[in-house]
Amino acid sequence: MNLTEIRSQAKVKLAGVCQVCRICDGKACAGKVPGMGGIGTGSSFKHNVEALDRYSLNLRVIHKVNEPCLEYSLFGKKLKMPVMGAAIGGGTINYNDAITEHDLNSAIIEGCSVAGSIGQLGEGPSLDYFRDGLEIISGNNGWGVPIIKPREQEEIIKRIKMAEEAGCCAVGIDIDAAGLINMRANGQRVEAKSLQQLEELTKSTSLPVILKGIMTPDEAEKAAVSGAKAIVVSNHGGRVLDCTPGTAEVLPGIANGVKGKITILIDGGIRTGYDVLKCLALGADATMIGRPLALGAIGGGTGGVSLTLEQIYQELFVAMIMTGTAEVTTVDPAILFYD
Ligand SMILES: Cc1cc2nc3c(=O)[nH]c(=O)nc-3n(C[C@H](O)[C@H](O)[C@H](O)COP(=O)(O)O)c2cc1C
Q1: Which architecture characterizes domain 59-329 according to CATH?
Q2: Cis preceding-peptide flag for 34 (omega within 30 of 0)
Q3: Is the Cβ atom of 119 under 6 angstroms away from ligand 1?
Q4: How far, in Å, is the centroid of ligand 1 from the Cα of 61?
Q5: Measured from the CB, is residue 87 less than 6 Å from ligand 1?
Q6: Which atom of ligand 1 is nearest to 172's Cα?
């Protein structure tokens, strides 16, 4: 199957949930949470896409960059490019049973690793699903990162230990899920974390810890102090709070404060290799992709995910030549054009 066929398949399976729009920008699905959209008016999701759209790339071809290096090392693994799969769980609740949680998790973890990338898995009320996800990562040589909800401390530490035993290369906490209704509705407490609580979590493990959901320079600074290895500049795909800025809008301010102190990842509205390059030029070390990989998994399983990433690789490769960017680790902000 090619990407067009994969997207057609996904559209059939996701009827009523996602229109598989030509540009996945949060307009048609505004308010669809659960589902694929952004919460409330959908403005946070839309802002992610709009923020990236505001930048163009300066075309430069008088240079010697013909074989750019896209490789990027993270958590002891050598990635083919600075792109990872974001956690996009909830087969039943978000995708109207278009895919089982197990099949979604396998497609993400295996599809990402086929493409030389690392996938992440979300978690919800069921510990069985979490365990199943860890087994998939374990069977994939540890190429995978579970993202744990900001539960009570002992519940997080229990899951971090399980991730260690499964051989995961890192572990994450989506601290921006502190207000999630579905967890509370299931009688499972999630909470905003103090710096001291974050320190307790990073000290509880030898695994690199990712803090997902940082949107301001002061919280990025706190994350760096907490002992975390990486942050994700993220508004959870616009699903946890209406009216936030787009992630690419806040990225430069955050990078200005913590670049070099902590690994800066970003997600939200990144759809192409061009978007990846824009994020690197704005100060990210690497990027993450959410919804496009869900569509790949639902429309084409493991192959759908790897093909989606392969397309992004091809776009990034060409964009690097066309902007004179030799390496993904040193991207010149001057490649960006904006009014
Ligand atoms: C359907 C869906 C489910 C998601 N589930 C999770 C999750 O379980 N844990 C998590 O940390 N983030 C979750 N996210 C947020 C993504 O990890 C990511 O931050 C976001 O989707 C990135 O934006 P993009 O989809 O526009 O690329 C989910 C997003 C979607 C769309």
Answers
A1: Alpha-Beta Barrel (3.20)
A2: yes
A3: no
A4: 37
A5: yes
A6: 11
Considering only 143-152, 176-185, 214-223, which range has the smallest mean pLDDT?
176-185
Mean pLDDT along residues 13-17 = 95
Closest ligand 1 atom, residue 124 Cα: 8
> Does residue 181 surpass a pLDDT of 80?
no
Q: Is residue 126 helix, strand or coil?
A: coil
Q: How far is the CA of 34 from the centre of ligand 1 (A)?
A: 11
- Indicate the burial class of 15 (C-beta count within 10 angstroms; 0-12, 13-18, 19 or more): exposed
- Each residue of 277-336: pLDDT tens digit? 999 999 999 999 999 999 999 999 999 999 999 999 999 999 999 999 999 999 999 999
- Which residue among 156, 175, 239 is best mutated to probe the pocket of ligand 1, counting the most ligand atoms within 8 A of its Cβ? 239
pTM of the predicted protein model: 0.98
Asked if residue 86 has its Cβ within 6 Å of ligand 1, the reply is yes
Q: Which atom, in ligand 1's list, is nearest to the CA of 95? A: 1
Ligand 1: does its nearest atom lie under 6 Å from the Cβ of 290? yes
Is residue 193 helix, strand or coil?
A: coil
- Residue 283 main-chain phi, psi, to 5 deg: 120, 0
Q: Give the chain's end-to-end CA distance (angstroms, integer).
A: 40
Under 8 Å between Cβ of 202 and 226: yes
Per-residue pLDDT tens digits for 144-171:
999 999 999 999 999 999 999 999 999 9
b/e burial code for range 83-104 (CB count within 10 A of at least 16 → b): bbbbbbbbbeebbbebbebeeb
Q: Where are the domains of the chain?
A: 59-329
User: Which residue's CA is minimally distant from atom 2 of ligand 1?
Assistant: 88
